[in-house]
Write a structure and sequence with these properties.
The structure is a homodimer of 200-residue chains. With 200 residues, the first copy, chain A, is an alpha+beta fold. Chain A has a single domain, classed as NADH Oxidase (3-Layer(aba) Sandwich). The first copy, chain A, contains eight helices and seven strands. In chain A, the strands form two sheets. The first copy, chain A, has a four-stranded antiparallel sheet. Chain A is globular, with a radius of gyration of 19 Å. Chains A and B meet through helix 1, helix 2, strand 2, helix 6 and strand 5 of A and helix 1, helix 2, strand 2, helix 6 and strand 5 of B.
């Protein structure tokens, strides 16, 4: 599907065919697309928990104010950020480049994130935001629909997926075969209101 | 361009043809794509400052450790978040839906964000992350290249673009005609390391 068609047709869908299963190849195709999204310093700080178990989807649905798209969708992808990825053998993020620039990058990376918890959190949000949109556009291009979500109990979902202590959940994206299309867009602001030429 | 081709070919490009100008229609096409990205509650909390002035691009380049892609690119898009968009006449975000559900949404929105500065900030990061990836894929599909950036002096760039007090800068994306392609990807982590089945 053409990129612009995917961008236009991507909508937040709330009803999915609960009997539809996605193949392993389809799931892999979506994830392989997601990890081509950019991250600062190439730290690849996203972690993707792919929930296909109906039991766990149902539990997450309960922890999401009962929103049924979580139970019905074929996949629930919990996008998490590893807050300490900058400090976990970062040489591997640039293994294909010569040692000298790699070593400079490692120093610069550590200086950027060490003792900066807000920066670490912001980076998780930014990286997962970019990857989430890739997931949604890739899924749309494969004939699937999605719904990005943050209306759930983060602590309890974290316990359910054994979230490591130094990770945070950023958001979820559910993916599946739509059983009902989204209504028209709710109230888009005009470009003139949200874009500015050279400065505010 | 096919969505998957755009996802695969999008790379962070550092060299652009400084003489290339994008047309107003091209810039509008990118922005009209960006605002089709999802936001929580449809709050559309992103704000896009489109810098085409060579003088301002040069100043931002200086504030970005002299990174030349900022000066050379046709556009510098500064993605900002309005931290208080949830409280600014939010009825307009759902003007197309009936009054009763709209009123419930407004109440729920206010309860989600009021007195929650970290949540407001997270939402700016998430929304701008998703919109940034849309911008990069849209630009790639139009034959342009991009570079997402956060390595700059946020305070000084904020002053330069007259950033309102209740806004934050999330990141920048520069867009232009590549004069040199990106080197091969630096060191991608395997899917097995960053994806998990049902739980960590």
């Amino acid at each position: 599907m053409d990129t612009f068609e995917a961008i236009k047709k991507r909508r937040s869908v709330k009803s999915f065919d609960i009997n539809h299963k996605m193949t392993r190849d389809e799931i892999t195709k979506i994830l392989e697309s997601a990890i081509l999204s950019p991250t600062s310093y190439n730290i690849q700080n996203w972690r993707f928990v792919i929930v296909t178990s109906q039991e766990i989807k149902d539990k997450i649905s309960e922890l999401s104010h009962g929103q049924k798209q979580v139970s019905e969708a074929s996949l629930v992808i919990v996008l998490c950020g590893d807050l300490n990825s900058w400090d976990k053998n970062p040489e591997r993020y640039w293994k294909n480049i010569p040692e000298e620039p790699r070593s400079m990058l490692v120093d610069s990376l550590r200086n950027s994130y060490r003792d900066k918890p807000q920066m670490q959190r912001d980076e998780a949000m930014r990286s997962c935001g970019m990857a989430a949109q890739t997931i949604m556009l890739a899924a749309k291009s494969m004939g699937y629909d999605t719904c990005p979500m943050k209306g759930f109990d983060y602590d309890k979902v974290g316990k359910l997926i054994n979230l490591p202590d130094d990770h945070i959940i950023v958001m979820m994206v559910v993916v599946g075969k739509a059983s009902k299309q989204a209504p028209p867009r709710g109230g888009q602001l005009p470009l003139s209101e949200i874009s500015f030429k050279n400065h505010f």
